[in-house]
Amino acid sequence: MDILKQPLITEKVSAMNEKGVYGFIVEKTAKKPEIKNAVEKTYGVKVVSIRTMRYAAKHKTRYTKTKIVSGFTNSFKKAIVQVADGEVIDFYGEI
């Protein structure tokens, strides 16, 4: 099971990157110690704190020419990770 699905790259999280705070989309069942171990192993940094949030699926409706299409967006879990002072995670290194 891969705990870290993808990094969050938004304006708000990118502004927090300067302070050593990074965001990730994680597995819905992942606990804080598991997230900490995954980040430390993947990026080679020391994690100081973790905050997690769960987002529920939202109901969406779209009106087309032939019918009304209803459904839900995906639910997900987000983790905000703070690393130790002086350590950096480089998401753009492979680009």
Structural class by sheet pairing and helices: alpha+beta
Low-pLDDT segments, ≥5 res: none
Largest sheet: 4 strands, antiparallel
What are the secondary-structure elements, in order, as H or E? EHEHEEEE
Helix content: 10-25%
Shape call:
elongated
Q: What is Rg?
A: 17 Å
The pLDDT mean sits at 93
Strand tally: 6
User: How is the largest sheet built, in terms of strand order?
Assistant: 1-2-6-3
Kindly report how far apart the N and C termini lie: 26 Å
- Tally of alpha and pi helices: 2
What proportion strand? 35-45%
Would you mind describing this structure in some detail?
With 95 residues, the chain is of the alpha+beta class. The chain has two helices and six strands. The strands form two sheets. Strands 1-2-6-3 form a four-stranded antiparallel β-sheet. A two-stranded antiparallel ribbon has the order 4-5. The chain is elongated, with a radius of gyration of 17 Å. The model has no long low-confidence stretch (mean pLDDT 93).
